[in-house]
Design goal:
Distance between the termini of chain B: 6 Å
Structural class of chain A: alpha+beta
Distance between the termini of chain A: 35 Å
Largest interface: A-B, 29 and 24 residues
Order of helices and strands of chain A: HHHHHHHHHEHEEHEEHHEE
Oligomer: heterodimer
Strand order of the largest sheet of chain B: 2-1-3-4-5
Number of helices of chain A: 13
Number of helices of chain B: 5
Order of helices and strands of chain B: EHEHEHEHEH
Largest sheet of chain A: 5 strands, mixed
Radius of gyration of chain A: 68 Å
Helix content of chain B: 40-55%
Radius of gyration of chain B: 13 Å
Strand order of the largest sheet of chain A: 2-4-5-7-6
Structural class of chain B: alpha/beta
Shape of chain A: rod-shaped
Largest sheet of chain B: 5 strands, parallel
Number of strands of chain B: 5
Strand content of chain B: 15-25%
């Protein structure tokens, strides 16, 4: 009684599931036991939210990460595009600076030509180039960085002054004052050109340097974006793995606990409880299971208590039954012992063991013997009935010869029949087979029925007839007696019944014989019945198998 | 002269057998319980034992069993007197080693016949 021990205790808690762990399982077990993931699993389990919400949350977290990654990529792309644009602009400016340089060179060349050739068209060319220079320079100035402003201002001043000088030179040339024009060029124009050339070269260098910086910046941005993406990708993978682990184990653990717990219940170990930290559907399930376990335990306890009570009651009944049985056995013996002495002494007196019996007391001695036998019969009947009621009537099954049974009956009742002047007729088939049953008890049945028949018959005859019908033996005891009233036919086999109280007064008897006979016939697996007509006589029949089976229907 | 041992605790029943055998050549010795019955049988070596089934100290069945098992007494025929308390008494008597059995109340005439059969008067 294993559960007797755990009575009162809360009951064993459910141990970890006992599946043989694979390598994956072992890693998961180590992670759960020693890593912060284990703590996280328990935390997640303890979150007061449904499984649905937890799963949605986990997916949402991963989705947010992906969105963040996307946003950062977009930002990186935008940044690269902006810097590319700046690079393009820088390249344009470098171009413009080179064009200015070129225009300046042409301007100087044309000035020199004009001084040599002294023609207007060349001077026009100077102004044309100057115009180109101005246009390009305007563009350059519009996109100039603040650091360039000063240089540009100085170039513009120098250029303005060059143009003024060129105008004066061209005016002098038109007036054919070549020498003055040459002197003006050499003294003012040429140094100005040199100054501008220096400034322009510086501007070009500056622009080129800015472009290089921009290019490097673009490359750095690109590299940064690459690293960021990689980092995000790796982080996403780890986050997904971690979340998957945490979420799945926060579900697996309670399911396993429930599985182990149900396993215990299935094995009949009630009263255990399941310890699950989840506050979701699994937690609710565990709570239900614990409730169920408690109920089962209660039921089991009740049932066990009832069983115990039954056991106690059973034992008491058994003791009582044993006591009754012992009482029967000892009563039987105790009653028979004095009966033995009474019947023994009277028989010996009648057998003249003590000398010849005087005629005067021969009759009373005979009466004592007869009454003693009657008393013995009554005692036997009462004891038989007690045994039947206690369910302890057993048949002593053995082979018997039906002719022997009938002969015994005839011998024991012959004198009674003779005394009443009745014929006792016996009809037994000569080819009756060897039978199997309790011959003594069948003799008792026939003695009862025949004794009754003789008792209730004043004149005529009593007949015992036996027939073999297939596998059955049919016994019939008929008389020409008083018969049984129709309304009492059904009751004759009930205990303590006689057809009429006046009948028992006249004919005697306790009314036990028929009920005992009925019971004995039934123990043989047979049936008993009666056909009777009041005033004309009765016939009692019983039919039993020729060979009774070992365990007759009780 | 044959010796008969009657083991029976009831004085009246012992008296019946005493009177029954007084007119014969049998010599009767008596014992009033199972233990005394076994002891007397071992010492006196009777030619026949009549054993009541229900006796003080040692039941008649057990006494019969002991007599049937002991080498010095195993040849002695035993008549067991049963009382039909419950079915199977006869069977038990036979299994214990009884040569014959008789149901109580028995007819003294019948008992004498059985005695003469198992241990004929010399």
């Amino acid at each position: 009684m294993r559960l007797l021990e755990s009575e009162g205790a809360v009951g064993p808690t459910v141990p970890a599931p006992e599946t043989t762990p694979g390598p994956g399982e072992r890693i998961a077990g180590l992670l759960l036991a020693y890593s912060p993931l284990g703590v996280l699993v328990r935390r997640v389990a303890r979150i007061r939210a449904s499984v649905h919400s937890k799963l949605l949350g986990a997916f949402l977290l991963i989705a947010l990460l992906l969105i963040a990654m996307g946003a950062m990529s977009l930002q990186a792309i935008a940044s690269v595009a902006r810097q590319s644009r700046l690079l393009d602009q820088a390249r344009e400016r470098v171009d413009a600076s080179r064009q200015i340089e070129h225009a300046l060179g042409l301007q100087m060349n044309f000035t020199r030509n004009a001084l040599l050739l002294r023609d207007d068209s060349t001077i026009e060319s100077i102004f044309r180039e100057n115009k180109r220079f101005q246009d390009t320079f305007d563009r350059l100035e519009a996109g100039a960085a603040p650091g360039q402003r000063e240089t540009i201002e100085r170039i513009r001043n120098a250029q303005d002054r060059v143009m003024a000088t060129v105008s004066r030179i061209s005016a002098l040339l038109r007036d054919d004052k070549a020498d003055e024009a040459m002197a003006l060029h050499l003294n003012e124009g040429y140094p100005l050109y040199r100054e501008i050339a220096t400034l322009v070269t510086r501007a070009v260098r500056t622009e080129e340097a800015g472009m290089g910086q921009l290019r490097e910046g673009v490359e750095a941005t690109y590299r940064r974006a690459l690293v960021l993406m990689g980092g995000f990708a790796v982080a996403s993978i780890f986050l997904a793995l971690g979340l998957g682990f945490v979420i799945s184990w926060s579900f697996i653990l309670p399911v396993r606990a429930a599985d182990a717990f149900l396993g215990q219940v299935a094995k009949g170990e009630f009263g255990g409880s399941i310890d699950v930290s989840n506050r979701d559907e699994f937690g609710a399930l565990a709570e239900r299971m614990n409730h169920m376990s408690g109920e089962l335990h209660q039921l089991y306890d009740d049932q066990r208590r009832a069983a115990h009570q039954l056991q106690v009651l059973n034992a008491e009944l058994e003791r009582a039954s044993k006591a009754k049985s012992d009482f029967l056995a000892s009563m039987s013996h105790e009653l028979r012992t004095p009966m033995n002495a009474i019947l023994g002494f009277t028989e010996m007196i009648r057998d003249d063991i003590y000398g010849e019996v005087p005629e005067a007391i021969r009759e009373p001695v005979g009466d004592i013997h007869t009454c003693g036998k009657q008393l013995l019969g009554l005692i036997n009947n009462v004891l038989d009935l007690s045994k039947i009621e206690a369910g302890r009537m057993e048949l002593a099954l053995d082979d018997y010869v039906v002719d022997d049974v009938v002969t015994t009956v005839k011998l024991s009742l012959r004198s009674l029949a003779a005394t009443k002047g009745l014929d006792l007729i016996v009809t037994v088939p000569s080819d009756a087979p060897l039978c199997f049953g309790d011959g003594k008890r069948l003799t008792q049945c026939l003695v009862n029925l025949t004794g009754n028949a003789l008792k209730f018959t004043r004149e005529g005859h009593v007949e015992i007839r036996v027939e073999v019908q297939g596998d059955d033996l049919l016994f019939a005891v008929s008389d020409t007696g008083i018969g049984i009233p129709a309304h009492q036919v059904d009751h004759v086999f009930e205990e303590f019944r006689q057809a009429d109280v006046t009948v028992s007064r006249e004919f005697g008897g306790t009314g036990l014989g028929l009920s005992i006979t009925k019971r004995l016939v039934e123990l043989h697996g047979g049936r008993i019945w009666v056909e009777s007509e009041e005033g004309k006589g009765s016939t009692f029949f019983f039919r039993i198998p020729v060979r009774v089976t070992r365990e007759p229907v009780a | 002269m044959k010796t008969i041992l009657y083991v029976e605790d009831n004085e009246f029943n012992r008296k019946i057998v005493r009177h029954l055998l007084s007119r014969t050549t049998y010599r009767l010795i008596e014992a009033i319980d199972g233990e005394a019955g076994v002891t007397t049988a071992r010492e006196a070596r009777p030619d026949l034992v009549i054993m009541d089934i229900q006796l003080p100290k040692l039941s008649g069945l057990e006494a019969t069993r002991q007599l049937a098992a002991a080498p010095e007494t195993q040849g002695i025929p035993i008549i067991v007197i049963t009382s039909f308390a419950l079915a199977g008494d006869e069977q038990k008597a036979k299994e214990a080693g009884a040569a014959a059995y008789l149901a109580k109340p028995y007819s003294p005439r019948e008992l004498l016949g059985m005695i003469r059969e198992l241990a004929p008067e010399s």
